[in-house]
Amino acid sequence: MDCIVTIEIGTGAIRVAAFDLEGVIIGSVKGSYPTFHSKPGYSEQDPEQIFITMLYMLKNFLNEKIHPKNHTVVSICFSSAMHSVLAISKTGVPLGNAIVWSDNRAKKEADDLKHSDFGKSLYQMTGTPIHAMSPLNKIAWIKNNNKEWFDAAYKFLSIKTYIIQQLTGEYVVDYSVASATGLLNIHSLQWEDLALQHAGINKSQLAEAVPVFYAPKKLKRQYQTSLGLPENVKLLVGSSDGCMATLGAGVWGDEKATVTMEESGAVRVVGKEVLQDKQQRLFNYVLSDGYYVSGGPTNNVGAAFEWYAKQFGDFKKVFDLEDCIEDLLIEAGRVPAGSEGLIFLPYLQGERAPIWNANARGAYFGLNIKHEQRHFIRATIEGILFAFYNIGKTLEEHRSFTSLSANGTYAAYPLWTQMMADMFNKPVLVKQNSGPDSVACGAFLVSATEMGLYKDLEQAAQKVKLAENFQPNAQHHEIYMKLFAIFERLSTKLFDEFEAIADLQQNT
Amino acid sequence: MNQYFLRKECKELHAFPHIIEFAFKKISTIQFGSLTKAAHDFLRIYYVADGRFDWMIDNQHYILYPGDLALILPGQSFGGEKDLLDIGTVAWLHLGLQQLEPTGKMIMGKWSRLSDSECRSIGQILVLNNCPVLSKLKEAGTLMQHIQQEFAQQEIGYTTRINQLIEELFIVVARQLTRQNTSRRDFPQTFMKLEQTLRERLSHQWTVEEMAALVGLGNTAFSEKVKSYTGFSPLNYLINIRISEAIKLLKRPDVHVTDIALDVGFYSSQHFATTFKKLTGYTPSEFRKKNTTTPE
């Protein structure tokens, strides 16, 4: 039987999955790698370790789940996290580790650029909010702070580009990942000269930008042999994890939005137009020719909830976070919607959309003598989800949607998805628990479309089945809107206090 | 509490060549020079039963309160901040170990019944630990008291009992060290620390038992936890780091392949070549050739 393999190069792990041509999952594996923080604000990953983890997982997966059953791999599709930067030497050797999206060293570069007229026009051209996350500012940081590194860099790649180059010898980057660099003109799909100039590089120092369906000529013979793959297997460059999650959640056109709830999260819509937000609050990434994924990211989802669980949860067994979280969710379910007036600002790691304030910090607000620990648990979840609602509300200034499709680890908790439905006052759809994750599913759809199994990505997206449906509760919605008004005001009103406390924390 | 003090010359210690000094003392007057800073080639354990002690350990200042224990490794300097013992009650044990290398290789000596692998794991924990003060370790105080009683009463079997109590002290200290150094709640963070340790000492022939001990878990629980968190068994995770580091070195033309193999922890260049080829399809030398020339 023919099958399609998907490889996700995620923030902390490689995920390999295989599907039959009907889209039924055959199996999946995960292999993780560390993020190094050599200095506060720095986040780096080792490209060689990512490559080896990918090879190891892929090889074992093929040997255990695919080859013994005589499945034939006809297509492999990649996806990856956005915003990574890896400098390589003239001989293709990495110059140190890759800088990943969460790295904040380019904060000053970003702040200086953001409010200038030049920054505003760059945002219009590239669709990427001016932020320390984007390769535009990261490369500018290297130029301004480490001349030796900058001068030795023959090219600046994304991690996925490096992995694909190792396998095939070609330096390519798909439009999706390229459009998240802040260096690609998303209207013309060409590297933007003004952005390149600002970063101090030329076009030849970047990989060639190609459509998501592009397949490099061939897999190197050694890897064909060691992986046991046919000579004519197609390797598709694929897209970014965000775009794939959106496609894989069946979101297409005006009616739907998707929410991804992992460590961090995002709300996204798909459309033919770039959303030009005057306050630069939204991103616009290219999904395929003429289609854009627009939305906003939040920093504090699983990261904030796990923080709460680790600090205040009851660990009956050492390291058993899952069990602890289950207990917390039961407790949270016993508290009425709105946590009887307790509000949590979830900005433990600063926030991106829509407030874009790296100095924002967390707070519990409205505490009175009757609040118990379980109110804190529920308020923590509600605060995290208010941040999603805040992004959704910003998106709706540009485009309306009538339902949401939720994915990611926390979409599997009914309490979370129900709250989400109540806040948005819109139905929230979730895939069945046993199904593949949305990123892998999106990558499958890209491969299947490339093979001609679907007419185009739009038809492919319609094929995604969402089984579970959470209907909003109007009474809860009303309570949430009253609290959200306060949440929203606190998030902006505390600006000066956020500055002061972040400054104080940085200097202690 | 009676004053109790034994040193090498005392006949009570004749049956214990490994014990250099043992004391359980109440200090009621300050004597200058009663605890001068010095480094020795034996291991020292100090337990505070009462009072407040100002100590310098390995050039760092610590204040110890009742229930706290200080662990001073061979070669580390230790003494009172003002070179004296403060007022209070303190118990100590100076112990000669047959071997404790900076790599963590530890041999207790003939008197001990701890197995080789247990000794290795405890040795790793002692050496890798960067906090010489363990807080709230009342258990250690009880053990010290029992040791003192056994010495004082010398009932039948007391030599065996004392050696057992010292072993138990080591176990209690090692366990407390891992508890103190890992949160017990945050596996990702704990694993990150372990991974850093593995990278820093990649040439060491790590066993699963040693790794599990550093995290403070049993072998089975540790392996399960690592597998579900990383997707790898502990030893395969280690191989993964070894190959990643080897790739970096192979891309630098100035390091010999055999040296790379040993540096990253393969026991021979043959073992390295086989593992490398199995994963990448290239032998290390082929891989080097492909990756040190200009592409395209």
What is the CATH first-level class name of the largest domain in chain B?
A: Mainly Beta
Structural class of chain A: alpha/beta
Strand order of the largest sheet of chain B: 1-2-9-4-7-12
Share of residues in strands of chain B: 15-25%
Calculate Rg of chain B over CA atoms.
23 Å
What's the CATH architecture name of the largest domain in chain B?
Sandwich
How many helices of chain A in DSSP terms? Answer: 18
Helix content of chain B: 40-55%
Examine the coordinates and then state which fold CATH places here, giving the name of the CATH topology of the largest domain in chain A.
Answer: Nucleotidyltransferase, domain 5
Topology, number of strands of chain A: 22
| Global morphology of chain A | globular
Key terms:
heterodimer; A: 508 residues; alpha/beta; Nucleotidyltransferase, domain 5; 3 domains; 7-stranded mixed sheet; 5-stranded mixed sheet; 18 helices; B: 296 residues; alpha+beta; Jelly Rolls; Arc Repressor Mutant, subunit A; 19% strand
Write up what this structure looks like:
The complex is a heterodimer of chains A (508) and B (296). Chain A folds into 3 domains: 2-243, 2-Layer Sandwich (Nucleotidyltransferase, domain 5), CATH 3.30.420.40; 256-299 and 400-470, Nucleotidyltransferase, domain 5; 302-391 and 476-506, Nucleotidyltransferase, domain 5, CATH 3.30.420.40. In chain A, 40% of the residues lie in helices and 20% in strands. Chain A has 18 helices and 22 strands. In chain A, helix 14 (414-424) links the parallel strand 20 and strand 21 (428-430). In chain A, helix 4 (135-145) packs parallel to helix 8 (193-199) and helix 13 crosses helix 14 (414-424). The longest helix of chain A has 24 residues, at 373-396. Chain B is an alpha+beta fold. Helix content of chain B is 44%, strand content 19%. In chain B, helix 2 (138-153) packs antiparallel against helix 3 (158-181) and helix 5 (208-215) crosses helix 6 (219-230). Classes of the chains: A alpha/beta (508), B alpha+beta (296). The A-B interface holds A 13, 29-32, 34, 46, 48-49, 51-53, 55-57, 59, 90-94, 169, 222-223, 225-227, 310, 313, 315, 318-319, 321, 324 and B 183-187, 190, 192, 195, 216-217, 221, 225, 229-232, 236, 240-241, 243-245, 247-248, 251, 277-282, 291-296.
